[in-house]
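C-alpha cells please, single chain.
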Amino acid sequence: MNYDVIIVGAGPGGIFSAYELVNGNKDLKIAVFELGNPLEKRKCPIDGKKVKSCIKCPICAIMSGFGGAGAFSDGKYNITNQFGGTLYEYIGKTQAIELMRYVDKINLKYGGEGTKLYSTANTSIKKKCFENDLHLLDAQVRHLGTDMNYVVLENIYNELKDKVDFYFRTEITSVKMTDGGFEVISGDKAYSCKNCIISVGRSGSKWMETVCKEMNIPTKSNRVDIGVRVELPAEVFSHLTDELYESKIVYRTKQFEDLVRTFCMNPHGVVVNENTNGIVTVNGHSYEDPKLHTDNTNFALLVSKHFSEPFKDSNGYGESIARLSNMLGGGVIVQRFGDLIRGRRSNEHRIAESYVVPTLAATPGDLSLVIPKRILDGIIEMIYALDKIAPGTANDDTLLYGVEVKFYNMEVELDENLETKQKGLFVIGDGSGVTHSLSHASASGVYVARHILEEI
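Here you go.
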C-alpha cells in the first residue's frame, strides 16, 4: 500500500504532523501507525479497588495509544525555550515559540477554550527563590488537565479519522529504504511511502536506537533523569500553584554541585503508575474539573545523569535502578520523609498513621536501598531548600514515591529540518532526543509537516 507520508507513532508529534499535513494538502495519502489503542480504548486496569497496582500489561494503556504518554499526564503545555527540549537549537528560538503558540491555539479550538494560561512573568516568587539559592525558570503554562486534554485529543481524532488511515495495535518491526522512499514493515505486511516521520516517544527509545543502527544514522548518548515523586498537602505549595500552576525550580546541591529540579507539578492531583518496557515507575497528573481534585499536590524531584566514556547506556542505568525498586517493592515504593531521614523503612502502620493520605497504593519500603546515595542526598538537600520557600515540604509525613525515571532517546543526528541523513526520513518528538515535552513535541510535528508540504 502506497502513501505519500507514513507517521510512526500517534503521540503529540505524530498527531500534529498529521493535522498540519491534512490541512495543508487534502490530496495527500497519509497513514499513522500506533502500537497502542485508540483513545476510547485506552483503559488502565488499576481501579484502586480490585486492582491496586500495576499488573504489567503487554502494552501499557498509560504509555501507548492515541495521544501518546502525554494523554494522561495532566495536559500541561509549557511555552518556553528554557526547558522541555532543545528544538530551538534546530529551528531558532523565535520560530520555536511561534509554533508552540500555534499548537496552543489548536488545542483551544478543539475543546481547550476557557482553560487558564499561567505565567512566571512579574512574579515575586522568583525573587523569593533567588533569596534561597533556588532558580525559577520562565514559562507560560497552559493547563488543560487530564480530563480536558482527553476532550481535545478526542476532537482532533474525530477531525482526522476520515482523512488519515490509522492503524492501531500495530507494531512496526523495521523501517527500510527503497528506491523511491521508505518501506515500513509490520509483521508480514509492508507499507511504502515517499516521506516517513518517526515519532515514537520516550517509550520507543530502544526501538529508535535499533532503527538508527540499521539505517546507519549517527546518534549520541543522552541523559536519564532519576528521582522520586513527592506528595504533600496541597496547601504547602498553594501560594506557588495558585499563581504559576507549574513551577520549574532548579537547585545546585552544596555537597556535589549536582542540579536537582522540580518536574511535572500537579496541584490537587494523583500519583500513578506507568509501565515502560515492562518496568513499573511512578508519575502524576491532575484534572481540570474541581470535582476530581484531591487534597494533595505531587511533583517529581529529578537528578540528570549523562554517561559518555567508557559507559554510554544512560537508559540502561536508569532501568537497573527501576528494576531494583520493582524487585524490592513489587512495583513502586513509598516512604515517609521522616522515615528516610531516620534511616528506617516505612511500613503499612506508619503510612496509615501519616497525615498525608497516599493517592497511589504503593509498597511501603526504604528508598535508600534503591536510589544511589549521591542522587538521594541531592533530593534530600533539595527538599530542605524547598522548605524555605514552601514551609512544610520537609515535614515527616511528606511522602516520597520511587522511583521516577525519565528515559530519553539517544539524540539522533538531524539537520535544521529535523531530517536524518537518509533524505525523507524525519525524527520528531521525544523519540528524537530533541524534545522533552508536549509543547515541543507538538511544535516539532507542525514544523516537519510544513517542510514536507513545501517540498511537495
